[in-house]
């Protein structure tokens, strides 16, 4: 893989190249004192911090391809109906997304492969530009689950800051190679490649220091812990069922349907996100199949690391740390996994 070097101005040229080719650009953008995921109309809106930003924004790519509220069916008074593919149109480029969110996109592809509404939005993405993280965020543990802080595949172009104004670029596809050739970048020298590798290694070392658990032990330990109700009650005692973790997680996809019936006989059906940590989740006519909070928290954790592996062949936690950052009581998934592995990891 070739490395190229340029300044922030080269990054802006890359942005303008896609813009001039009629593509809408979406990614992490500065919005007052916070960061949101949305359309970038100007390069100055792009969040360029070399630090992992997932713990600073409750949003992710999920907000773009699988929105929190989506109208998808309208019915008239004569009972005729038609599907609504919302107002999302135009080809787009994801720009400046982080490696953990890149991985979440491919997880969403697997989980929602048969969803035509997801597919409609997904097909509009024509390019992916990733910003690698040279400084992990406070709650990041991407390297432990193999999703960062750098990336090797699944993107068109990636870039990383190795100095305040010095940027290393990599191409990950023929499209990426073609676009980078138009920026007239120079090939990185040996010292610059070395500096890049050192920064990525330092980021991984920081994550390892904050979360030294060997993830190879997680799946087996979780499997053995399923019936240990007392352990899960203790682990989840601070969980209040607010579902914040579900809402901010880039791979939680559960929705429920809402019908809005009008007095004139017309009706609309939409779907909204719903979280498995919510006390009403699992409540059906005549019973509640996860009526205690520890059951819901246990399911959330097991689904991320165990059940999903059996369903789609991969774990669906990308180590972004959003569930930790936006938990009002700071219930820490890393501590949960440590607790389970400390008891069941060696049995």
From TrEMBL:
UniProt xrefs under InterPro entries: 4Fe4S_Fe-S-bd, 4Fe4S_Fe_S_CS
Pfam families assigned: Fer4_22 (PF17179)
SUPFAM superfamilies named in the record: 4Fe-4S ferredoxins
- The source's domain of life comes to Archaea
Domain 4Fe-4S ferredoxin-type: start-end pairs? 229-260, 308-336
Identify the PANTHER family for this entry.
ANAEROBIC SULFITE REDUCTASE SUBUNIT A (PTHR40447:SF1)
Q: Which organism is it from?
A: Fervidicoccus fontis
Query: What's a Gene Ontology MF term here?
Result: oxidoreductase activity
Ranges annotated as spanning the membrane: none
Which protein is depicted?
4Fe-4S dicluster domain-containing protein
Q: Where is the signal peptide?
A: none
